[in-house]
Amino acid sequence: MSRVSQAQALENRRRAVAAASQLFRERGVNGISVADLMKSIGLTTGGFYKQFPSKEALIAEAAQAAFGDLDLLLASFDTAHGDHDTARGALIDFYLSAEHRDQPGTGCPTAGFAGDMAREPTAEEVRETYAAGVQEFAAWMSTDANDGLPMVATLVGAILLARATAGTELSEKILESTHKAMTAPHGP
């Protein structure tokens, strides 16, 4: 059996983190095993333990990567829309869309990891990564009127409820009514 080069090992790690970031948001951290994760990228479970000391370490890295992706998305909204207020409005439009609701694996990690963070009280490193990501998202959403936390809480709550009721009229109503409330002249 040939040994994997250092470059290949780094690429395998990157692929594992990217797959975990997506699959954890889709299925939850307990909804995907290490074996299933590694199989999804064509590697063995043994390869996992050469890269990560534990699944918790991978969860922390996957959450950090997901929030890095969110940072890039937010920056792209700023770039595409010129001024931050317009970018914030466009982000609200995207966030409260059926597209975002129906693609949790590539969606916001604030919503994607929320249930796991609430259920995993011992995951201190992951919780710190998550909290930092939420704070950065809130800072981006902030306005002169608030620090962004009410808007993030509203967006995340709405998308979680819309996903939980997907396929029903209520799901669409949640997206529409939250969008209307957030874009009203004196929204949250």
TrEMBL record:
Protein name (record): TetR/AcrR family transcriptional regulator
Domain spans labelled HTH tetR-type: 10-70
Gene3D superfamilies attached to this UniProt entry: Homeodomain-like (1.10.10.60), Tetracycline Repressor, domain 2 (1.10.357.10)
SUPFAM superfamilies reported for this sequence: Homeodomain-like, Tetracyclin repressor-like, C-terminal domain
Signal peptide: none
Pfam family, one: TetR_N
Residue ranges for the DNA-binding region feature of this UniProt entry: 33-52
Keyword line: DNA-binding, Transcription, Transcription regulation
